[in-house]
Design goal:
Elements lengths: L10 E3 L5 E3 L1 E4 L7 H14 L3 E3 L7 H14 L9 E6 L9 H12 L4 E6 L4 E2 L13 E2 L3 H13 L3 E7 L3 H10 L6 E5 L7 H10 L2 E5 L17 H10 L3 H11 L3 E4 L4 H6 L10 H8 L9 H4 L11 H4 L5
Parallel strand pairs: 3-4, 3-12, 4-5, 5-6, 6-9, 9-10, 10-11, 11-12
Antiparallel strand pairs: 1-2, 7-8
Helix pairs in contact: 1-2, 2-3, 7-8
The structure holds adenosine-2'-5'-diphosphate (A2P).
């Protein structure tokens, strides 16, 4: 019998019929600290996290797979089915004939026989080859979305993943996808936080039965742009008055939008703190203050592309992800 986690995370039923724990731990920086990676995931499982978000491009699939195997051995979970694993197809594999081998590579890295959710990572395709980041502008190619999606559907039909979806898709890209999808995307994982509230995309996805999961829910931490969430004076004021942290106010607001969250922390106390968001609410006055926060998208196509070189076979508008 597996030990009970300290927090039970609510589930959201996806359009595929499968249940997804609404808060996930992001693993995108974990490969920078491989010695710590397994420990962070095991700690997260002890705290109550059951959903882990990885990607071929993060280099964290191997450590995640090892951590899940160890959690099983330790009796922290009873079976593979107790965890929900999301992974993603990288731009170099964003070609109809590469999807199947890409998911098999991810499964082999994870040492698992199925994913819970497989996402097209970006609406961008580049010349096939090893994972590269940033993307070379001259290697960006037109995306055969119809062909790639058909291959994603095949992955689900073969039982290699329970659900399929996309990431960083705008309403325009989703609209294109929905025209030919036989299996609709269950999830669109996008940047969503208090500095980029995504109300247009949220309304569209709600109407279409697509679950949004918010990445960079705390504004993200990277060298490309300043974090406008954790440094916000408006949020500090709300947090101080409410006896919560800015992170908790931010995560609670996202939760109240009815969407999922992928939050990263490699710190035990912050992992715990980020789950203490279920049994209290924001007031209408606090929500109104939050709506007034200046909006600015952090994760843009520009930061995906190398600064030198130029696009040769697509227009920037074809790969732009800023919602207008
Ligand atoms: P750390 O790993 O040191 O906790 P996002 O999920 O928006 O990409 O942001 C992740 C960043 O936010 C990480 O650098 C993480 O750092 C930090 N972070 C995560 N949880 C908290 C928290 N509760 N308070 C402050 N910073 C946090």
């Amino acid at each position: 019998m597996a030990s009970e986690p300290s927090t039970k995370i609510p589930l959201k039923t996806l359009s595929s019929g499968h249940n997804m724990p609404i808060v996930a731990v992001g693993t995108s920086g974990l490969s920078f600290d491989p010695d710590n990676a397994k420990g962070v995931i095991i700690e997260a499982i002890k705290i109550g996290y059951r959903h882990f978000d990885t990607a071929c491009s993060y280099g964290s699939e191997g450590a995640l797979g090892e951590a899940i195997a160890e959690a099983l051995q330790l009796g922290l979970i009873e079976s593979r089915a107790d965890v929900f694993i999301t992974s993603k197809l990288w731009c170099t594999d964003n070609h109809p004939e590469h999807v199947l081998s890409a998911i098999k590579t991810s499964l082999s890295n994870l040492k698992m026989d199925y994913l819970d959710l497989y996402l097209i990572h970006w609406p961008i395709s580049t010349i096939p080859g090893p994972v590269t980041f940033p993307l070379k502008r001259e290697e960006v190619m037109p995306l055969d979305l119809k062909g790639v999606w058909k291959a994603m559907e095949q992955c689900q039909n073969l039982g290699l993943t329970r659900s399929i979806g996309v990431s960083n898709f705008t309403t325009k890209k989703l609209e294109e996808l929905i025209q030919f999808a036989k299996i609709p995307p269950a999830v669109n994982q996008v940047e969503m936080n208090l500095a980029w509230q995504q109300q247009k995309l949220k309304e569209y996805c709600t109407k279409k039965g697509i679950t949004i999961t918010a990445h960079s829910p705390l504004g993200g931490q990277n060298r490309f742009y300043p974090n406008l969430v954790l440094t916000s004076d408006v949020l500090k004021e709300i947090a101080d008055a409410k006896g919560k942290s800015i992170a908790q106010i931010s995560l609670r607001w996202i939760l109240e939008q009815g969407v999922g969250i992928v939050v990263k922390s490699f710190n035990k106390e912050r992992l715990k703190q980020n789950l203490e968001i279920f049994n209290w609410e924001l007031t209408e006055a606090e929500r109104a203050k939050i709506r007034s926060i200046q909006q600015r998208k952090g994760v843009t196509t520009e930061i995906m592309l190398a600064s030198e070189g130029s696009l040769t076979s697509v227009d920037f508008a074809d790969i732009d992800i800023v919602e207008t």
